[in-house]
Design goal:
- The chain is an alpha+beta fold.
- The chain has a single domain, classed as Alpha-D-Glucose-1,6-Bisphosphate, Chain A, domain 4 (2-Layer Sandwich), CATH 3.30.530.20.
- It has 3 helices and 7 strands.
- The chain has helices at 14-22, 27-30, 120-143; strands at 2-10, 34-39, 49-56, 59-71, 75-82, 87-96, 99-108.
- Strands 1-7-6-5-4-3-2 form a 7-stranded antiparallel sheet, covered by helices on one side.
- The longest helix is centred in the last third of the chain and has 24 residues, at 120-143.
- The N and C termini lie far apart (37 Å).
Length: 144
């Protein structure tokens, strides 16, 4: 199992951060490695279907996923339904000092040789840097 976990403090209440983060119109604004993103349901809620394309370590990853948990201001979880590797992405939101401590947790069971077995640790490190940068972008957008 490979994981990327990052936490950031954002000076906005959890509900605001959560709503911005799950608004499909905002996805490409704060995620530099996201090439395409679409909500296939009318609204973002438990059971909604998503599809997207990420660029990771120079490779395009097309995926489809389902929102498996959605508790406004607390957490959102999406799980892959079709992807080169199974993944789960969880966003956690906690109120702290009038703002939000947001945690991003991406778990990938196995890359299945998509990047080559020896490259897996390097890909995880590179993706972690992208995530950190993306969260800084998110913070900047929400605090502007």
């Amino acid at each position: 199992m490979h994981e990327v976990k990052e936490t950031i403090f954002i000076e906005r209440i959890p509900e605001d951060v959560h709503l911005f983060l799950t608004d499909t119109d905002n996805a490409l604004l704060w995620q530099s490695n996201l090439v395409d993103y679409e909500l296939l349901s009318e609204e973002y809620r438990k059971g909604s279907m998503l599809r997207g394309v990420n660029k990771v370590a120079g490779r395009r990853l097309e995926w489809a996923a389902e929102v498996v948990e959605h508790e406004l201001g607390e957490r959102a979880v999406i799980r892959s339904t079709k992807a080169p590797m199974d993944f789960e992405l969880e966003y956690r939101f906690a109120p702290v000092d009038g703002g939000t401590e947001m945690t991003y947790l991406m778990s990938v069971k196995e890359f299945g040789g998509f990047f080559g077995k020896l490259a897996d640790p390097l890909v995880v490190r590179l993706y972690g840097k992208d995530v950190r940068s993306n969260l800084e972008n998110l913070k900047e957008l929400l605090e502007a």
